[in-house]
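Field notebook, page 456. I keep forgetting to write these up properly, so this time I am using the form the group agreed on. The chain and the ligand, heme C, are recorded exactly as supplied. Prediction of the bound pose follows.
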Amino acid sequence: MQRISRLAVPITIVTLVFLVYACATNLPRGVESNPAALAQRAPERSFEHRSDAHAKDMLKDGKQIFRYDTFGSEDFWGGKLRLHDAIAGAAHGGVGPGLTARQALQLGLKVELGALPRILVEAVKGRSVDLGKVDTTLELLRANAVVGVTGFFDASTKRMTAIGIQCALCHSTVDDSLMNGIGRRLDGWPNRDLDIGKIVASAPTLKPFADLLGVDEGTVRGVLTSWGPGRYDAELGHDGKASRPDGKPTTTVMPAAFGLAGVSLHTYAGWGSVTHWNAYVANTQMHGKGTFYDPRLNDPQRFPLAVKSGAWNKRDTPDLITPKLAALHFYQLSLPAPEPPKGSFDAGAAARGKTVFEGKAKCARCHVPPLYTEPGWPMHSAAEMGIDDFHARRSPDQKFYRTTPLKGLFVREKGGFYHDGRFEDLSQVVAHYTRILNLSLNDGEKADLIQFLKSL
Ligand code: HEC
Ligand code: HEC
């Protein structure tokens, strides 16, 4: 007994020394650790808390940027094109008759209900607001209620001095909850009502475009007014192509900016990632101030105007775009595809159509559920798609179309399907695939397939 207690002290000491040694050396040995990760060790869980908080901040900042950031584009739309002068009209220090609120809504501009002062909402409801007046347009701009457009006003003269644009201009719409064109924001929904060509064409001068394209202003105006609602050409300023071989406009329909998480390549012809395209658009289309580098455009044969303008390697100071790209990217990927309204499709037929989509019709080979595009490299040649290669050839890769993710397809019914809206409705889409994929679907299967597409 005495012997055991005499031994107990040294045994305890040895055990303790061993334990301390084991902790200090982080046994088991032979396991590698990154010193940077070790530096995050204390206090406990601090990095996880930081990343959760970071995600929340990114979402908040990204939403703000997507909706309200002009990236300094007012120096172009206001300073160079003087678009604000055409909106304000001669009576308010601008030129011409000005743009009434009704005309603005008819051009597809949207008004955010939440931004309207209460008194204005009551006045709109009571029909005491005159939509036929330019003053109303200016009042809406002062309230920062026009989606995707910011008016800049001089504090003392109260006159509009410039106008800048945002991503939301083309990639958001409203739910018309107050009246046609006025409602709650729907971010990521393509604005298929917006006649951006006509809006830009109304600017008092189009000289910057005319100089770049090497044509007169009348020609530029003619091209812009030929586009029509829900359409835009994001490549004209680089390749100078204003009409297709078939004489139709070179525009694409506005795509969805929702449901893009998990999709590996973006734009109809797969120019790159979401953030590549965001930098491209903010710098080269919205004419914001920033940095953009894409040496694929430094090709005098294919992109003579990008070479002429230097748009392939743009370096503005200050850079108002690059610091915002991360949050902007994050916000876009957070936007879910909307669910089609109940009753907008026949659920029984859609369930049968799913089997057709995934089986006999071979759609799921490319539109892999639940992303409805291919994980990996979702690109297909024009020949494979059974269509012309005009638009595919305008992209740096020259020959592909990207498998469009199909969730929220119902939102894109207006304006047509495929990059240029060539198919007016889903029955035309299904007829096209029946031909090019050599499908043998009976009328019932085709109808079910259409109901399934409407249910996505
Ligand atoms: C003048 C209208 C307009 C504005 C403003 C605009 N876009 Fe776009 N956006 C388009 C069009 C048109 C396309 C399709 C281009 C193509 O595929 O050739 C597009 C494509 C996209 C895509 C690819 C979608 C897909 O299916 O992969 C994303 C993402 C996007 N835009 C985000 C933005 C962001 C972010 C901004 C602001 C920095 C912005 N856009 C500003 C019209 C616009
Ligand atoms: C070989 C790959 C492939 C197969 C198979 C395929 N698709 Fe597509 N799908 C694409 C590509 C690529 C596009 C984009 C074409 C464009 O924009 O010009 C597309 C576009 C679409 C669109 C238009 C989306 C939009 O917003 O404009 C619909 C709808 C569609 N596919 C449905 C189907 C159905 C239904 C089937 C089966 C019958 C099918 N697809 C089979 C690759 C495929």
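OBSERVATIONS:
- The two ends are 80 Å apart (CA to CA).
- The CA atoms of residues 416 and 424 lie 4 Å apart.
FOLLOW-UP: compare against the apo run.
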